[in-house]
Amino acid sequence: MTERAETTWAELPIRDDLRGGSPYGAPQLDVPVALNTNENPFPPSERLAAAIGAAVADTARGLNRYPDRDAVRLRDDLAAYLGHGLTGRQVWAANGSNEILQQLLQVFAGPGRAALGFEPSYSMHPLLTRVNSTEWIGVPRAADFTIDTGEALAAIERHRPAIVFVTSPNNPTGTAVPLDTIERIAKAAPGMVVVDEAYAEFARAGTPSALTLLPEHPRLVVTRTMSKAFAMAGARLGYLAASPAVVDALLLVRLPYHLSAVSQVVASTALSFAGELLGTVDALRAERDDLVAWLRSEGFTVADSDANFVLFGEFDDRGAVWRRLLDRGVLVREVGPPRWLRVTIGTPAENAAFRDALLAAVR
Ligand code: PMP
Question: By CB distance 3.0 to 4.6 Å, which of 18, 210, 236, 329 could disulfide with 195?
Fold first, then answer.
């Protein structure tokens, strides 16, 4: 029997607006020093791994049943972690903050609506926007990657977007957005304002979270993740804080039992080790500040960073520098403005390897 040739996209009735697209994805290469996806380089302790193992074993005995559809215990735990007087009613959880963003777009955007963000920023915001048949409006940031409040308000007035995304600290630049700017955007926006705080825990002192603005702004949403500070990228757990009405609206689009019993118990167990896990954040912040100072002392341009990564440049051919780093076993990210590269903060040994490789790469 002759085998049929492999089917191509041309033969499939793929949605017209998806046809030309390409999937999101940083290269997942097996390299000695992976500093490309803003993970926390410190693995869970043996004590935490054992606690997760025991909790999962216990949960396994009930896996014939569907999980708690509303993840009540986990949401209470997340609210307690966030503080600010929040309760589980104001918190929602899903498989990574990407799923949270997807659910927000499903509820608040859609055909005939627009979402607006300040670029360069997290590329999943426009990607998820388009997948949800929503128009994307990218407003450029200033040369120093800050948001010009006047321009932001003018763009909001002009486009009347259903959702405004504000990433703070911003990926890939590391730039935190002042609360005053977020508040003025929240007052002016006709729809939802989503502050993506995936990197909030890494902010330098004096960079407050937008959580403080929630009581005054019912259409404000703050999204967070356990992938970064909590060193739980593999567990896939993201969450948001917002008014209870926003959480109730998300129930309209969430898939039944979207968050597995295993995910829920892993996340709650990790939260009970918050002190230990967040201990790595202080070390990473100090490593970041050292790396920024070192890069500047070596003559590189560096964006101020409130995150666990640093955007540095400027290179006439960043692709060549990226490749030479990779040749030396160091994987960074070719992302953001064309003359810059982004490096995630690793362990002290990984950061040292990056410094050596970078000097060799640009020599
Ligand atoms: N928001 C921002 C700004 C990010 O950089 C990332 C991860 N790269 C996410 C959200 C998504 O993270 P996760 O789905 O792992 O929670």
Answer: 210
pLDDT over 70 at 12, yes or no: yes
182 CA from centroid of ligand 1 (Å): 20
pLDDT reading at 26 higher than 80: no
pLDDT in tens, 214-249: 999 999 999 999 999 999 999 999 999 999 999 999
pLDDT in tens, 65-79: 999 999 999 999 999
Is residue 129 a contact partner of residue 104, using CB atoms and an 8 Å limit?
no
Spatial CB neighbours of 121, under 8 Å, sequence gap ≥ 6: 141, 165, 167, 170, 171, 172, 173
3-state class of 27 per DSSP?
Answer: coil
Q: What domains, with CATH codes, occur in the chain?
A: 23-45+275-362 (3.90.1150.10), 65-272 (3.40.640.10)
Assess whether the C-beta atom of 121 lies below 6 angstroms from ligand 1. Answer: no
Q: How far is the CA of 327 from the centre of ligand 1 (A)?
A: 27
Cα-to-centroid distance, 291 and ligand 1 (Å): 22
The ipTM assigned to this model is 0.99
Cα 122 to averaged position of ligand 1 atoms, centre (Å): 8
- Which of 99, 102, 171, 224 to probe ligand 1 with, by most ligand atoms within 8 A of CB? 171
Q: Which two tokens stand for residue 208?
A: 């407050």
**What's the pLDDT band for 1 if we cut at 50, 70, 90?**
low
Backbone angles phi, psi at 64, to 5 degrees: -70, -20
